[in-house]
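Lecture 7 notes: from sequence to structure.
We start with the chain below.
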Amino acid sequence: MTILEKIIARKKPLLAQQKKAVSIDRLKQSSYFNRPAISLKKALSQPGSSGVIAEFKRQSPSKPAINLTADLISVTAGYQKAGAAALSILTDTHFFGGRNTDILQVRKNIKIPILRKDFIFDPYQIYEAKSIGADAILLIAEILSATQIADFAALAKDLNLEVLMETHDEDNLEKITKYVDIIGVNNRNLDTFEVSLENSIRISEAIPDNKLKISESGIRSPQDINKLRAYGYQGFLIGEMFMKTSQPELTCQQFIQNI
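Predicted structure tokens for the same chain:
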């Protein structure tokens, strides 16, 4: 069983419980549900954008303790002040130490887009993302069929959410639909956990020109940003490199200043 399969197997019964506890109608009563989303695509592509999607991540399957004591409020506010184009916030609890309330807690103080990063396999999770104040959702091509991506992306559009479709290889690019706004290339092989920027470079030409593309994982220096930009990437998701330090927001600030 791959790590993705383990994550989904763990989440399915938990989601079933959540759906019984909180209905979609109740999610729609959230004060954030009718809030206009902030465009992630625009934030990444506008002139002068750093392109950095700064991630708040306490832990991961490969590293159970990246930063368990980081203060959510100060780090995310610091990311915004540092010039991050957007935030990525993990909401999976068991594997990543996140929770839905993380986005709820920071939403009122954050004026840049927030990507809800989780493992979506049920329409309910898209309504959930809207109810907590997310601006964009992640759809992982490896765990979803083409039909699921088409349906989920269309639902996201109906809810005024943007869609980032993530893949690790070219084969999944055939699942792209008109409702997918951004293609993210994960440089981490989730079977072996090996990371290589060459994955983004290899796949870059296969991504349709009308889709904004971002590179995820393994970005460690401003030189990496410049290298990826030469292949058409406009977004750069960076988490562990910031979070593993005692002051992630300061590390982010220094990084962006050096781009």
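Points to note: The radius of gyration is 17 Å. The chain has one domain: 3-257.
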